[in-house]
Amino acid sequence: MSAPGPLLTxxxxxxxxxxxxxxxxxxxxxxxxxxxVSLDDALQGLNYFRAGNRVDVLFLxxxxxQLNGLDLLRVLPDPPIVILTTAHExxxxxxxxxxxxxxxxxxxxxxxxxxxxxxxxxxxxxxVPAPAAPVAPGPxxxxxxxxxxSKMVRINFxxxxxxxxxxxxxxxxxxxxxxxxxxxxxSLDARLPFDHFVRVHRSYILNMKRxxxxxxxxxxxxxxxxxxxxxxxxxxxxxxxxxx
Length: 244
What we know:
Blueprint: E1 8-13, H1 17-28, E2 33-39, H2 42-50, E3 57-61, H3 69-75, E4 81-86, H4 92-97, E5 102-105, H5 110-125, E6 143-148, E7 151-156, E8 160-166, E9 169-174, E10 178-181, H6 185-191, E11 197-201, E12 204-207, E13 213-215, E14 218-221, E15 225-228, H7 234-241
Parallel strand pairs: 1-2, 1-3, 3-4, 4-5
Antiparallel strand pairs: 6-7, 8-9, 8-12, 9-10, 11-12, 13-14, 14-15
């Protein structure tokens, strides 16, 4: 067992049961950790934190259906200490851009797990510097406020690439960030005052000013992302394409 220390509360989010059980076992062997919730879906995790629940450490898988771990981490307003657990090394750069504490590649043993926990303990014990006062950007005619978690966030819709439906949420995707908003696609579509935002699929609204190319039944937007154009939407889409 590890040496006694501060007791850190832990959440596990992983869609594979064997991985959750392994982490739960490792945590049970570690005096400084305690599991408070173990979830098999990132949307459940989003709802858990949106409800105001807090933990000290989050053990987070990356590749999960509907919402992956990195996207969940991007939209949490005040994330805990994060230790990523994944079968893939390809996401390491993204992970450290998000300032995760450690990145465990499956399968990992208890010794490697313990080193990650030690880093989490050190980070938890370190003093937190006071954040610099943010400089708010000036409003523009293309700004809208949307509710993200418990606060209203102003988004410049010139920067939005597309909007995607996700269960009871929508994801607003910009060049730099994703915002998960608790609303329906129909409700948001009715609020958008911009003619260049067009429904192109039952699950997508597209900013036509950000289209770089059209290929294989999809619009290509910056970053090489492809937004599908549904067959029932194609006539209206192409008739409007050259009028934007």
